Amino acid sequence: MFKKSILPAFLFLVIANSILFAQNDNLILGRNITALQQYAASYPTEKVHLHLDRPWYGLGDTIWFKAYTVSGDLHKPTTISNVLYTELINDRDSVLKRLTLQLKPGTGIGWGDFVLPFGYKTGIYRIRAYTNWMRNDSTAFYDQQIVIGGIKPGSEESAKPMVATLTTAHRIVAINPDIQFFPEGGYMVNGLRSKVAVKAVYKNGTSAVIKGIIADNDDNEVAVLNTQHSGMGAFALMLQPDKHYKAKIFGADGGTYTVDLPHAKDEGFVLTLNNSNADSLYVKIAASDLLYKKNGGMAFYIVGQSGGKVYYTTTAKLGSPVFTIKLSKSRFPTGIVQFTLFSQSGEPLNERLVFIKNPDMLKLHLSTEKPSYAPGEKVKIAIGAKREDDSAAIGSLSIAVTNETKVSLDEPAETTILTDLLLTSDLKGYIEQPNYYFTNANDQTNADLDLLMLTQGYRCFEWKKILAGDSSKPA
Known about the structure:
- Helices cover 16% and strands 36% of the residues.
- By secondary structure, the protein is of the alpha+beta class.
- A hairpin with a 2-residue loop joins strand 19 (299-306) and strand 20 (309-317).
- The protein is globular.
């Protein structure tokens, strides 16, 4: 009798607790997602790409460009702004010319040009473009360097490009570059294997090549440190309690200098993402022994969002020290996706950025009526645009025709609509060779792109600011 009478009550208690747990999960996740949606609605993103006809110009030339202005997480033609401001700026940050362009309604498209007088000095100039709305966040401005070379009217040198290039024109030689360390997920935890990215730059922001080792406070070598692209590299190590770690860098002059690594936490999570698979993304969360013993069974949440729109959420319990999930990349848009680990109370603990490349690019085909033309002869070009499934695509296109024998090109260092809208507009700081990550993509370039995600950070949407309910209105 006793067993029969207590069993229904026990089942009711279990079911009730499960329901309360699920309801609490929904409340916390719902609160965070709602806060993000409200913030994204109050501060919609807007971006600009200018398609220039070439990266180098001579005095007396005209800079022709077409502007594409987009908004939102999917980069659709903007509905926010109708006017675009473009500026030509010299090396002293003085605005030499400013254009106010009317954007074609409903398309976000505009056209413009800058005529370069012969009185200008040769050197590195900048073209800046922005809408009035983008002034709320000046880091979102389109800002592109160009080279203006020395040309004299009628001179044989008029068709030759300036020797300086954008990547070397302002390089400063420094003995010891600045070195920063970026633990994956935000911090290192004792007792857990951690991946640490490194970025080495000179004082002017250009990258440095470094080699060295990682040693503990007993001078035991625990990892090897080498940069592999644009001053970036990574290493992994198992952190031990009561140990401190430092990097020993072998300088170009033959000397050695040391840089301390960030201190590790005794308790916490490590958030790891593996993006090497073509169609799948692996997420791993590891808890330290101390955290697991104290909080076994606690709930945690993972949110994956891009541009303020949430594409993935999950709720789990700390039933073991390691939690792993496999996600299809097709559920996310192409571009930067931000994963955040939240505690049971909804506090953001760890973050990791990843760049998703989906097979969704347009397939463009260009053809001419004949293989060669006489000087001055009119050339007709046929353009075909198809989607990945070979269905016809409709859009606004632009083509720049350049004589490559007269204008030197550095394809990895170029900026394109992909680099501007998907990469540099969402990362802070100077990015060397942005097109390197998109041309001739392979395992190495994808690995280097992941290092960029680990080092330069993405903070368009800061959770702590969002969850605090920032009520400030954009100007």
